[in-house]
Structure formats: structure tokens, C-alpha cells
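Model it.
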Amino acid sequence: MNLEAVVHRPSLQFRQPIAREKVIFMLETAAQDELECAITYWKRDGTGERILRQMLPRYSDGLRTQWTVEICFPEPAHYIKYYFTLKENQESAVYYCENGFYNHVPGSGFFELLQVNETDVEALPPWAEGCIYYQIFPERFAIRPRREKRRQYAEWTSQPTRDHFLGGNLGGVEDCLPYLKDLGVECIYLNPIFLADFNHKYATVDYFQIDPDFGTEKDLVSLVERAHQAGIRVVLDGVFNHVGIHFAPFQDLWEKGADSAYWDWFYPKTDAIRIASDCYECVGDYPYMPRLRGTNPEVRAYVLRVLLYWLERAHIDGWRFDVADELDQEALRYWREETKRAYPDALFLAETWGDASSLVAVGGPFDCAMNYLFRDAMVEYFAQGALGEKELSLRLQRVLMKYTDTANLAMYNCLGSHDTARFLTLCAEDKRQMKQAMAFQMLFPGAPAIYYGDEQGMTGDNDPGCRGGMQKKDQQLFQYEKELISLRKKSLAIRKGSYRTLIADDQRRLFAFERRYGKERVIAAFNNGEIPQTLDLPESGGKVDISPHSVEIVQKIEEEKPQ
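Modeled.
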């Protein structure tokens, strides 16, 4: 037994409260060790008996195995002592407590849970669990004709560029709500809509004004109201790490240099300011997007005003924070605490391209994050063929191990976005592979996120190629996505159940996993090979015939076992 790999800490990472009376205890061991693990716990005052509970392996990434057990207490958990028992094959048991490892039950030095407080319990907006997102780049989604054109627009079907405009607006999004409702969308995520430089609107000029390219505040209010009537929520893109050079405080800095009242709103490098990255800090060293100083109390207060303004005026349902991992953590916690005080069900969604564990940890600033690690695995497996089945299983479990069960059910699982090549393009336009990835996305734990047009077979290389005008090209693919969404909505196992890899067969190119909730069990089996296969699913899942590059889904409701 590799004792060096055994880890438990008295922290929220290893003791995850579901409620004050319900706690998931977690232990990590070496993946290579074949163990039995258990926890023994009791009340510190000795008023109750010592209770032993077996732990079950949850995930393994090839290096570590996570063991968990959910314990329900008769009252809010407090003053609980506990230790772990580990046994390998027929060898003597090892006992693990705060003081280390023993060959006998220790007499002292136990782990201790003093209190589970309200703030220890992860408070995810209930609607965000397993939510189905649809990302819209407003300039390229749909047009509601208006009396006067603000610009010279390119043809809607033209090859997208970084500079041209197509004329999409908020009215066009509102007019497409019946289409989104028919698809089964539950939440729209809109790329930036505030007054800004450039067609992407990530260089904000005025956070309190809707960009005239898209419409007016009235248009946003109408869109959100109509969306809510259709059962669809709306999340806006908050770009608070940086601004555009025409943002009024930066204009003042540009004009007055070191004499500007807004000097501390930014990160100047020189007394005199010109538009250059050697004069001030900017995102991606791009001089047209200077960074805001989130540590400045005035900046924090300003951003909070923006957050609350649109929640109040337009009744939006939350915010996606651009480049969240570059923002000041203390500022993020302040914005979350103050916003949640007034709007507890408002979503805080983080953009990050890597490990989001520091952003979505219990007590962290975000409810969930964009799960590009999930997307990376999907691209490498279905599009590039660079992953085998065993490695795919380990990769996915490694991602799941980073977050709590609550956070995993809300992670924004995308196949693509405005910052990536279209998934179908990466698949060399093989729609069999696209369909497999769509099914995997809809059946995997988390909140599946569709990038506009992917359900219609849109293609395009990375920015700007992925930002073409919305086109309805493939009704068969749309129908397939719609059926997957319908299945997901009807199944608690898919929406909020546990995950387990069943088969990861590199030789036959077969992969299968199960989702389980209560009596319901859903099995998804994938054949990524070139020949038809018959798959014998474990635990009476039955035999399934799978065509090359396709998926089969089996639903089972377990019968009550006789008493």
C-alpha cells in the first residue's frame, strides 16, 4: 500500500457539505492500490456509538483514486471525530488519522469536524444544475429590420472577417425565441452587448448603454421578458478585466497622464500615456484593451453598480465573467457577495481555459466555469483521434475530480465557442463524429452549451471563421440535437446522476459510461471504430449492437428488490 499517496485534510475540499446535516467525506489513495476503505465516526462527547461506513471509489485519473461516502447526521454536524481504515487484499488493516498511520486503532489524534456552517454549503442557483445553454454572438445571429442602417453591412452569408459587420441585433434574437424553445434551450448566454469598440464588443466604452448596433435598453428588457415567458433565462457577458480606449476614465488618463483622477483605475507604466502596451497593462498585451485595476475600491464599486443595474433593470439571470482567471480574487468575492445578497439566484459563470478549481471551490467567487478541459478531451477523441478510450476515461475523471459534485453538475460543457474553431470543422465535416460528440456532451455530467449554429452543421475555422452569420443548413442534425435535449430533460439520471466509466476498450475502440440516479440507470455506448460491434454491457445492461462511429443509449429502471 502506497501510504505516501493517502490524503485527507480537514477542509471543504475533503468534507463537502450538501446541507448542514449531510456531508460527503473524501479520501485519496494511489490508483494502483486495490483497497477497501472505510470511515469510522462518532460524537466527540461520547454520547453515541462509533459508526463504521464503507467508502466507494468515485473517480480515478490513473494516479489517484477518490473514495467518498455521504453521511447524514440527525442534526447539524458538529463535534464529530473520525478516522479511516484501509485494507489491501488479506493484509492487516491500516488506520489513518490526523497524527498519521497506525497498525492498531489509534487512541487519540483523530480528524475532527467542529461545525458545518451555512456558508460551508455550496449554494448553486437551483436552475443552473444541468442547465442547457445556447451561446449567441449577437452581431451574427439574427436581424430584426430597422428603419435606418448604422453601417455598411456585408452579405449575411459572406466569409466572416475581424472587421466587417453583418447587422445582427437583440430584436433578431427575440424573434428567434420560438426556434430556441423548440430546440429545448434553457438559458441564452449573450456575448457582450454594451457600447464598445469593434464588432466583438469586448472593448467596452459604456457599461450602462446597449450598443446601438444591437438596439436599446428597451430591446434588452423586451428580449429578457419574452425569453422568461418562454422558460428561457438570459446571462450577459461581463467584461470587467479590461475596457476599450474610449472608456471615459481611460480617455481622461490618456489626456491628463499622471494628473488624471483615474490614474489608479488602471496600471500605467509611464507618466505620459499613448496607445501602446509599454504605457499601461492591457489584456493579451493588446493596447486597445487596457486593464482595469480591480483592487481599487472605486473600480470595485463601479463594477458592482453595473452588475446590479442590469439585474434590476432588465431582470437578467446572471453574468459570465470574461477572463475570470485574470481578475483580482478579492474583487470577485466582493462582487459575488454583494450581488448574491440582493439576487441569490443570479449565476456567476467564469471563463477559464484550464483548471477552474480555485474559481469554483466552496467559498470561491463562482458557481461554475466554462469547461474547456472537457472540450479539449472531446476534440482530441472525436475530432483528432489523438486519444484512446482508456486515456479518455482518465482525462474525464481527472476533470471531474477537480470539482465538487455540485459544481460538476453546473460546469459549462461546450464543444466550441466564439474563440475556437467550429467542432464540425475540426471533425473534417464528418457528421458521424459530430453526432457522437453531441451525444457525449448531452449525456455527460454538467451543463451542455451549444454554440449558435452547431446544431445546424455550421463550419468555420477559429476567429473570425467561427463567427459567421447564423445559417439553418441541416435540419437532420437539428432534429438529432433536439431529441438528445428532450431525452436529457426527461431523465434525472442524465441531469443530476452519478457518473461511472463502464468500458474503455482501446483495441475495439469502444467506450461506455453510465449515469445513475435512484432507480434510473442510463448507459451511453460509443463505437469509435470502423466496424459494427456488439457490446455486452456490464451489470445486466444487455447486449447492444453499435454501428461504426455511432452511439447507442440504453435506459433502465431498476426493480424494487424483495425484502
